[in-house]
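ARCHIVE CARD
SHELF: 3
SLOT: left
DATA:
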Amino acid sequence: MSRTRSPTPRTVLLIQPVKRSLISRISALKERATTDVSTPAMKSRIIFMETTDNMEPTPLAVCAVESAAHLNRDKQIYYFMKGFSGILSQYPHPENRGIHLLSSVKNIVILPLNATEHFEDTPLKSWYLKVNPEKEKYWTHVLADASRLALLWKYGGTYLDTDIISLRSLPIANFTCPQNRGTVTNGVLGFQNRHHPFIWNCMENFVANYIGDIWGHQGPELITRELKRWCKIKDPGVIIGKECNGISLWITNRFYPIPYPAWKRYYDPWKKEDIDRTFSNTYGAHVWNYMNSAKKKTIIAGSGTLIEYFSKLYCPIAYSNLIQPKIFR
């Protein structure tokens, strides 16, 4: 397959019903969840997703989605969840408290993550039909790697991982962001218009070079190798802070001011002046929750840690309803 072409006009035409399907679903959810999903002022969208069947997002995930919504009131926030049926009333309190808190925020809508539907009319469909999830070492992660590409291709916007706490409003732009000089991650991707050819190329690359048992091969490594091809460079570091063929490579500090080996620093107390200095150019703080899977550190009210500071400031609904009450248990 070619890696530099955009899809044919026929492919674009086939995608149109999917767009209408999403709009219809949003309209239905608006009635069921009594959430005002779309207004004429909405200029773009931010996409989050959950690729397990879990329907009770962690306090950190709720904080991530809430903070993006509060700081980007001119944007729609889509939270795609694999376990969601599309009917909010099927998920009662208190078991599913998090999604009800999010649905109360004006510009957030929760949607089903249906891989069969989202991979339709993309290169990912052939891969999805033949892959066996039970034999995949990192299935949840490679499904997430594939799904974010399909969602950006079909709907456009900015994708954020659910362990990124927004600190500032996001500009509307086509961008990627490196976690270090040599690696461009897929934890944050911005492609505002549907059907961007870079995303199509990434989906083709995903299928043609699929190796599911190598961590990151379908994620950061995919984005890095495709960006090198797109920009005709060998080292992504040479274009950090610059634009290449319509895609900006933002400085690392925009989302990764603390590198992943130092992720525990989010759970330490900080001085205010150190926070201001470290995060002065940051749009969203990636707290590297995957690194925390063994330690299982949590956001503790009254701890004075950096992550508690961000939670109190940027996701007050999550903090007051999911984090602070733990003090009294």
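SLOT: right
DATA:
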Amino acid sequence: MARTRSAKATRGKSSLQNERSDPDLDLISNLPVDAYNAILMCLPLRDAVRTSILSRKWRYRWASIPHLVFDGIKRCAIDLADIVNGVLLVHNGPVHKFVCSYYVKAPYHLDQWILFLSKNGIKQLTLGFLQHSYRVHSRLFSCQAPSDLHLTGCKINPPPAFEGFRGLRNLYLQRVCIANDELERLILKCPLLETLTLKNCYSRLIHFVINALNLRHLCLSGEFKDLQITNSPLLITAAIDLTRNIYGAEHLEQGGVCNLIKILGSLHHIEKLELQGYLLEFFSMGNVPDVLPTSFLHLKNLSMGICFNDRKVVLTALCMLRSSPNLEMLEFSVCGYGILEFQVIPNAGFWEAQEHLGCLLNHLRTVKMTGIMGDECELCFIRFLLANAPVLETMSTGKIVKKSRFLKDMLQLRRASTQAIIICD
């Protein structure tokens, strides 16, 4: 019996020594496929390729990872297109994520990549710094699975038979050339779209309509003559920045319903709103009401660019404040001098009239100001805020150009809040 046990122990020890001495048997060579992919997707693509030297079982594991990100590759003598082509040539299995934001000279490389990705279940696609003359291959619009699409610097022309991206949730277009009606059709045919970003797209967006039932986050920057947001009841954050040169005085129409109501009147569930640049100037066209027909009851964070030398712009800003009874944070920056043809500088009588109308800033706690020049019209607005914010905690001014007299006057203003602190840079 003792000999039997000793023999078994000897064989077990010998077997264990053989396993340890076998270079092909280690702790990472027999992992499940999902584990391999999870490890490789945590590495930059270049390091993932280098795992081929670990063992024979790791030699081509990287060739099946579903995420291909080329942004971390440094430019060298070898052209980036050759690197991407080499990876795609040996890749097997689906590609769910593909990122390449470098400038690629030859359009036919891009066409080949899109053809390859469209057949391999692409879900997240980022192509950037392309030639502006490059027209995205029509095969892209036959994909049914994408959830995220980021395109920069190219032309988009969806074919007439385009049925939409039924699973698309995030759409990002920057410096993209696309016709107005085609962009509207693209957005409309993405029923699950939640995040839309349009930055400096090369298109004459006249009477541009955003119709997205499930839209929750919107970011617009560029040239727009007219804008309408319809059928987006779930929108909770919006950042809009319109450049001024597209709507000079010749485009502005006086009278009638103001642009503020036309564009923002239906955003009943908005929680965070950024109105940058000269957007308030655009919103002020028409008859600005004292308060909007429907208040922004959920709005907590508001950012605006204000021209204090234009009476209509100031009225528009005050209308926004009166229509936001639950506002907690206000940020505003001073910009420009308004459109001279319609500019009327607010006077003392103007501000007295605003005080009589009242303002519901009962929840405002933080005010941040930038670009303050130190003019009297800015001081009047600050006086209005301090007098109508009973729970205000902090008001910060940033750098003030003409600060000596302005600071003294501002610190002497009456405050509705006993705990309000004014922080000056």
